[in-house]
Design brief:
alpha+beta, 3 strands, binds zinc ion
Amino acid sequence: MIRERTLRARQKLVGKLPITGELLRGSLLERTIRHTKGCPKCARGEGHHVFVLTVTYPGGHTRQFSVRRERVAEVRRWLSNYQDLKEAIETVCELNHDLLRPERAASKRRRKQHD
Ligand SMILES: [Zn+2]
């Protein structure tokens, strides 16, 4: 019974997986760049707002990519797809732990039916 319930829950999750190639891992940060000279905007103290995608790799190594303002919404969506997919995968793995548990009652029932 638990097994069927787990399989149903797993199937429901798999059906909702955001299957897409539009995935990005990392964090989108907004930074302010200030030029030291020759820029009126920075001279007024405004600076320039830029977006940077920071991706961390095992061992603490990181890579940074600048993101154009017009692509920020898209990048946020791709990051969100990644998080949703990752959460769903983790949940499926947790459900699969239940499926690994031996279910004595169920196998006994099945054996009786075959007798
Ligand atoms: Zn400037």
